[in-house]
Design a protein that fits this description.
By secondary structure, the chain is α/β, with parallel strands linked by helices. It is built from 7 helices and 6 strands.
Length: 179
Amino acid sequence: IIDRLAPFFQISNQLDYVEISHSALDGETARSLSVALEKREKRVGIILDTIEAGEERSGEIIQALLFEDPSIAYNLTLRTIRLGRFGCDALAGVLQDGRSTLIELYLDDTGIDDEGLITLVNSVAKKNVLEDFQLTTNTQGITIVGWRALFAYLHSTTCSLAELVLSEVALDDRAVISL
């Protein structure tokens, strides 16, 4: 279906977001979507919601969504997709890739743990393009260790974030004190 819609995505400059929800998606289809969307002349958003993918396939999908045209900024929303180690590594690769123009990242109910958050923070610190980061409905897995890494980045001179949203996360008193 994405292949058949590709010409529409390429010529429709009115399209702001593409949302794929409650579907099976593979890396090849995600790459077709990415190629079609990056031929547009304006910023675009991609929302993947409740995609049926294991950790390894979620990493493959994320890698496929790397826009290679540096003139097209985009934002990515991942909802109810278990990223795991493969997904976080793939997302980190996209974030620090010299060609990446990902400027907004919204992660909702992705099951990120300390290791995943640290991986993402380290990659964002290297690239400095991400302007907006939202981490929501991630009530388990991130402890004081992960929060310290995020807060250290926020205090660094390399922080490029203009907006940070933390909602429905396990942010306890010790984490807040480390701010």
